[in-house]
C-alpha cells in the first residue's frame, strides 16, 4: 500500500468554481491533483479527452503516456515553476507544482488542447495498421480544443494568474505534521540515498526519539519501514514507466549496490519477487 501522507488537503469551494468557469470558457480539462496524481478538483468534472483514451487504450500507448506524464511532473518539480509541453500525439498540457512552507502539495494542470489542425501522419498510419479506417481517431482529434500560439500564450498567463490567486488567498490549505512531511519529501527527492533517522533528526532539529514517535503516531510504522516503503513505491513507479528496465538497474537507482538484497527486501514487504511485478507491468 502507498505511504499515506500526513497531509489533509482542504480546498475552498471557490477553487472548484474557478476551475468550472475556466473549463467552460476554454472547453479544456483543468484541475488540482495530489502529488500521486489523484484528482482532487477538476473543472466541470471533465474526463480525459476521448482522443487521448483512444491513443492510450487502442494503440497500446499507456506506458508511453505514463512515462511522459512522469517526466513532465519531474521537470516542473525541478524548476518549481510552470512548464508547458506537447505530447507525442500533439496534445499540449501546462503543469504548475503547488507548495506550502516548502511542502509539495500537488499540481495544478490544464491541458489536452492543440495548436495543429492536422493529426500526426505517423499516428494515423499506426491506427490504420491496427484498426483500418482512421476516421474515428481523426474526428476525436478535431473535437479537442484548438488555439493559435498567441491564444495559448494568453491562456497560459490567465491560468498562472488563477493559480497564483488561489495560492495567495489560501484557498488551498492543509492539516498535517510538517516535520514528517518534510522528511518524507526529502527522502523522495533523494531516493537513491539511504536516509538514517539520525540524519533526519539533524535536518529538522528534533531528537531521534521525537522523530521515531512522530512516524509511529502518524504513519503507524517505524522510520526504517517508511524509508523502505518509499523506495519500493519508487521501484514500482520505475517498473510501470519503463517496463524494459532490469531489477539490477532499479536497485542501483534506489541506492542498493546489491540487487539480491533489494530483491529480498521487496519480497519481504510485497510477498513476491520484483521480477514478478516487472513481468506483470509488461503485460
List its traits:
single chain; 283 residues; alpha+beta; Beta-Lactamase; Arc Repressor Mutant, subunit A; 2 domains; 5-stranded antiparallel sheet; two-stranded antiparallel sheet; 7 strands
CATH class of the largest domain: Alpha Beta
Global Rg: 21 Å
Unreliable segments of 5+ consecutive residues? none
The CATH topology annotation of the largest domain reads as: Beta-Lactamase
Beta-sheet strand percentage?
A: 5-15%
Mean pLDDT: 89
Number of domains: 2
Count the DSSP helices: 13
Main sheet attributes: strand count, strand direction, barrel closure: 5 strands, antiparallel
Structural class: alpha+beta
Order of helices and strands: EHEEHHEEEHHHEHHHHHHH
Shape: flat
Question: From the coordinates shown, what is the CATH architecture of the largest domain?
Answer: 2-Layer Sandwich
C-alpha termini separation: 21 Å
Number of strands: 7
> Widest sheet: strand order?
3-2-6-5-4
